[in-house]
Structure to design on (222 residues):
């Protein structure tokens, strides 16, 4: 796991090359530091990149990896949103291969699965699972800060927990968020419970007469 410069980046080392999850914010400095970290563990080339959603801090140096010979794999919806979101439409490095819902990649004896379980942080959230390591990259579906729903790009608070339900059906011991330290299965379960409580409280507040302007004040967030 490589921290800083944007979202957490994951590197899976195999004897036939490397698989990278998320490419941080745009900028040569971010790419160069990632490559410096990668070279500290392997001299093999990066063969594949998978993006977990289209925000700049996750796709920023895609083009650098493409120029170096890697394929960038992502949801079709991610490619679409990256091309229309004002924050990303001018960032080069659109995915070179897309899929509709689920994708499995095998390289050097390692398997990596990418799953779309619905809408949450964005409309193109992708959970990336390493079954042999029992590790799942949950991206910004779990955060130590206030969760952000990118409604303009298909995000949904109502469906957020569906993604975590999908994650919890996987056999994993470690969940890696977009920012911060790795989480346990128990942490994921607790976060799902908290998010469900928030949505339920918001729903109750609306039924009690809360409006768009007053909902934030009327929904308990403790």
């Amino acid at each position: 796991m490589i921290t800083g410069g944007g979202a957490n980046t994951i590197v899976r080392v195999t004897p036939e090359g490397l698989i990278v999850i998320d490419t941080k914010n745009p900028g040569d400095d971010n790419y160069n530091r990632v490559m410096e970290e990668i070279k500290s563990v392997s001299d093999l080339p990066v063969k594949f990149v998978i993006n977990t959603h289209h925000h700049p801090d996750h796709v920023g140096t895609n083009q650098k990896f493409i120029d170096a010979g890697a394929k960038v794999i992502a949801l079709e919806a991610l490619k679409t949103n990256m091309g229309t979101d004002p924050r990303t439409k001018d960032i080069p490095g659109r995915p070179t291969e897309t899929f509709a819902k689920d994708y499995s990649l095998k390289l050097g004896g390692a398997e990596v699965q990418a799953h779309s379980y619905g809408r949450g942080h964005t409309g193109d959230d992708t959970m990336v699972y390493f079954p042999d390591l029992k590790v799942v990259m949950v991206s910004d579906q779990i955060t130590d800060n206030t969760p952000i729903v990118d409604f303009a790009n298909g995000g949904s608070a109502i469906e957020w927990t569906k993604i975590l339900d999908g994650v919890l059906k996987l056999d994993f011991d470690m969940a890696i968020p977009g920012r911060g330290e790795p989480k346990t299965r128990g942490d994921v379960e607790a976060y799902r419970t908290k998010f469900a409580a928030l949505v339920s409280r918001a729903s109750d507040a609306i039924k009690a007469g809360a409006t768009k302007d007053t909902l934030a004040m009327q929904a308990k967030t403790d």
